[in-house]
Amino acid sequence: MTDKTHLLTPSFQGRRESAKRRVLEVDGLSTRLDGKLIIESVSISVDRGELVGVVGANGSGKTTLVRTLAGLLEGDSGDVAIDGVVFRSGVANEGASRQDMARLVAYMPQMAESHPFTAFESVLMGRYPHLGRFELEGSVDRQLAWEAMKRTATTEFVDRKLDTLSGGERQRVMLARVLVQQADLLLIDEPTASLDLRHQILMMDLVREEVSHKDAGAIVILHDLSLAARYCHRLVVLHEGRVLADGTPWEVLTSANLRKAFGVEGLVGPDPVTGKPHVLLIGKENSTGSEELIGSGRKVHLVCGAGSGRELMHQLLVAGYEVTAGVLGVGDSDREAAERLDVEYIDAPPFSRITDEQHEAHLRLIDAADHVVVC
Fold it and tell me: Is the separation of the CB atoms in 178 and 219 below 8 Å?
C-alpha cells in the first residue's frame, strides 16, 4: 500500500505521531440545536482497539453527539481531541485541514445516502482523504475499494446506481466506504437499523474487526441492547443529553439504568451461548399512567409449579406487586422464572417430598402476603 502520510501538514503530522493509545477524548461537550441544549457536559473517551456503544432512548442526544464529533455540528462548549488534534467550540487547531481530519474520522449516518453514483464510485469516494491535490484514484485505491465491497458483500452492486438499492443495501455500501477511508476513529450511527439478522451480524463483525485489526477506535449508536453488549467493549448511556452511565456492558446494563433511561422494567442475565449480558424487557415502567403502580406496597404469594405461575409472576411484578412463591424444586420452570425475576421462593431438591421445615417456611411467606394465589 502506498504511504501517503507525507500529505499531512508538518505541524499536524507531528501532533498525530505524539498521540498515544487514546484516539478520542471528549471533555464537557455541549451542543445546541435551534437554541435548545441537546447534549450537555458530555465527557467520554475511546482508546485504540476499543468499540464503544452509545445507547439511549429516542431524543437522548446520540445522533447529535456523533454529528458534533464528526464536525457536522458546531459544539457550544467543551473540548474534543481526536488523535491529538484539539477542537474548541467546533474549531480545529491551526494546521488541521479538512482532508487531514477526513483521515482521522470516518462518519456513517443512520440514513444511507441515495444518489445517482454507482456503488463502486460511492465506495471509492472514501479514498479522497488519501489523494493529493489534482490526484486521481490509482490502482491501489481501486483495489482497496473492491476489497471493502467484498468484505461487506456488496460486489454484486458494483455497477448499480446507489439510488436503485434498498436502504439495507445502501447501508452496507456506506460501510464499505467507511472501511476504505482507513480512519483512526469510526463514528457509526445505527448501522443495523435497515438490515436483516444475517447482515446485522456481518455489519457488527466488520466494525469489531476493523477496530481490532487496524488499531482504530469506534463509536457505534445501537438500539438493540443485547447486540450492543455482545460486540462493544464499553457502553455509554445517554439520558436527556447527559451521560447516565459509562462502563462495561455488565456495569451499565442494570435494571435501574433501564428504568431511568428507557422507562422500562427489564432483567439482565448472561446469554446462554456467549455469556454476554442479555436484556429481557418485562414491561414498561408504570404502565397504568398513574404516579403510583397499582400493586405498590402489596405482596402476592403464588402457590405454583411446573410453569403454572411464571406468566403471572411477570404480570404482577410489572403491576408493582412484591411477589413470593412456594416450594420449587431444582429444574422446575417456575423456579427458573423466579430466579430470573428475583422472586423469593422455598428451595427444594428435584422430585422430593416437602419437608416439615419447607412447609413451615412456606406458611411464613403466606402469612406475610396480602394475597395468595393458587395457580
Answer: no
Give the rounded distance of the alpha carbon of 107 from its chain centre.
16
Select the more confidently predicted residue: 19 or 103: 103
Distances (CA, A) of 211 to 48, 66, 147: 7, 17, 17
Cα 102 to Cα 123: distance, rounded to the nearest angstrom: 14
Please, where are the H alpha helices in 167-268?
167-181, 197-213, 225-231, 249-252, 255-262
Entry pTM? 0.77
Statement: residue 73 has pLDDT above 60: yes
Domains in the chain, ordered, with CATH?
Answer: 5-263 (3.40.50.300), 299-374 (3.40.50.1100)
- 307-to-25, 32, 269, 369 alpha-carbon distances in Å: 50, 52, 20, 21
What is the layout of strands, in order, in the sheet containing 36-47?
Answer: 36-47, 22-33, 77-82, 85-88, 91-92
pLDDT tens sequence across 15-24: 444 445 899 9
Strands 234-239 and 242-247 come out as: antiparallel
pLDDT confidence tier of residue 233, bands split at 50, 70 and 90: very high
Site of grid cell 397504568: 288
Q: Any alpha helices (H) in 232-286, and if so which ranges? A: 249-252, 255-262
In this structure, the strands spanning 91-92 and 85-88 are: antiparallel
Residue-level pLDDT at 271: 84
Using DSSP, state whether 352 is helix, strand or coil.
coil
Residue among 330, 332, 345 nearest 305 (CA): 332
DSSP state of 161: B
Q: What is the spatial distance between Cα 204 and Cα 191, in angstroms, rounded to a whole number?
A: 8
